[in-house]
DNA sequence: TAGATTGTTAATCGATTAACAATC
DNA sequence: TAGATTGTTAATCGATTAACAATC
């Protein structure tokens, strides 16, 4: 059975489906049609059915989708049925904030350690973790079976640290540093470039303003 | 002159161009061709030229693009030549982390205030700001000409707070709460859904693993 | 069974890439 | 001028939407 490649556009929509289905489930909704879900989520029913059918049919003709079942299945597709072991590399404000974020644990993302190069931070408690020096990281990654490294450190050191972590066996990097990491083909990188996001926001403010300007005759 | 709508796909790439051009500029590179830039950024030269031409030609045939000029122009397109006034709403770990992030200021995003509902935080210093109670927010937004609200608060209160802020005149929301905000057409929302990002990461780990499994005969 | 709604194929739309004439 | 490289049109590719037969 050949596995057809699922586009990242589809993958990018799965977490949102998952969230809406979770809410419906919590509200006690048992079944939902693509039509109803489309109204709720403001996407086309067609897209919903196409998206789900990438993974085989989850619905039933004449009935729709069972909310609980669909929720579970999308969770499995996203890998939320298995645990991941994370370390945070860089215990600055952002690193500490992520360590304190409870919600990841609920989805199976377990924060196992937090590291920093800065001696002043060593030994500091961050939620249930203690900031460790970078020298301890190799042993820790290998012994604790760490999957995912969260990079919350300055861009200057990100590439070098990423290379090391990959050598130690990490499989994925959640990258908050503002660089494009070069990694081997088998390593996953997910970027969160906050300043890029803020720049998009800024562009869209300007755009809406000039649109409004056009209506009121301020321009053109 | 009709303004053709620029697709969000293009806008989403601008910050990355901006970053690379900034680095080239700092390295003292004066000119660059779409071909050279394409090798550096790992995208097609065709896409680069198409993207830039959405905004009118920035290059010169036979020469390429002037790095400094192109950098400036993209900055302008992104609205980085004008200042934005931000407030952070929700002074938890993430809110404080963002307040401490120096790099936004450099691009004209000025953090003007930070607010929280939690009395225990009121008066706390976060970088150059002091956490204020939510009751002060209306006056502050109006008097300080605040453009952008950064929502770093629990999803339960996000919608309600967003509605208020919009009434007070905010133009854009940088939303870290895990909900889809309903806002009037003229208000800009840029979402940063961290858990969605982590779920995508998780999916891609599974995918790469099953790919590798296929090669090594572990599966299928 | 009749009605509802999926799963899936076909049509459309938009984004990316290729090609090349214009021009510096 | 000749060579280089853009700006732009045309071709391709992929993603979204529409339509409808299958089927619960």
Describe the structure.
2 copies of one chain form a homodimer. Chain A has 220 residues and is α/β, with parallel strands linked by helices. Chain A folds into 2 domains: 8-77, Arc Repressor Mutant, subunit A, CATH 1.10.10; 84-195, NAD(P)-binding Rossmann-like Domain (Rossmann fold, 3-Layer(aba) Sandwich). Chain A contains 9 helices and 10 strands. In chain A, strands 6-7-5-4-8-9-10 form a 7-stranded mixed sheet. Chain A has a 3-stranded antiparallel sheet with strand order 1-3-2. In chain A, helix 1 packs antiparallel against helix 4 (67-77) and helix 2 packs across helix 3 (45-53). Mean pLDDT of chain A is 94; it is low at 216-220. At the A-B interface, helix 1, helix 5 and helix 9 of A face helix 1, helix 5 and helix 9 of B. Chain A binds a DNA duplex (24 and 24 nucleotides) through helix 3 and strand 2.
Q: List the total number of helices of chain A.
A: 9
The count of β-strands of chain A is 10
Helices and strands of chain A, in order, run as HEHHEEHEHHEEEHEHEEH
| Helical content band of chain A | 40-55%
**Most extensive interface: pair and counts?**
A-B, 60 and 60 residues
């Amino acid at each position: 059975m050949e596995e057809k490649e699922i586009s990242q556009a589809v993958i990018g929509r799965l977490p949102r489906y998952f969230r809406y289905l979770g809410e419906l489930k919590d509200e006690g909704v048992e079944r939902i049609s693509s039509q109803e879900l489309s109204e709720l989520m403001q996407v086309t029913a067609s897209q919903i059915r196409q998206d789900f059918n990438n993974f085989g049919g989850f619905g039933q003709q004449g009935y729709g989708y069972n909310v609980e079942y669909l929720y579970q299945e999308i969770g499995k597709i996203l890998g939320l049925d298995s645990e991941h072991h994370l370390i945070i590399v860089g215990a600055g404000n952002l690193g500490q904030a992520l360590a304190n974020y409870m919600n990841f644990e609920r989805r199976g993302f377990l924060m196992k350690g937090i590291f920093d190069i800065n001696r002043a931070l060593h030994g500091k408690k961050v939620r249930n973790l203690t900031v460790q020096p970078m020298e301890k990281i190799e042993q820790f990654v290998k012994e604790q079976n760490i999957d995912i490294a969260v990079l919350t450190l300055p861009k200057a050191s990100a590439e070098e640290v990423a290379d090391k972590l990959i050598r130690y066996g990490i499989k994925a990097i959640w990258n908050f540093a503002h660089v494009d990491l070069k990694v081997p083909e088998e390593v996953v990188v997910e970027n969160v470039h906050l300043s890029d996001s803020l720049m998009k926001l800024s562009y869209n403010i300007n755009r809406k303003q000039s649109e409004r300007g056009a209506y009121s005759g301020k321009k053109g």
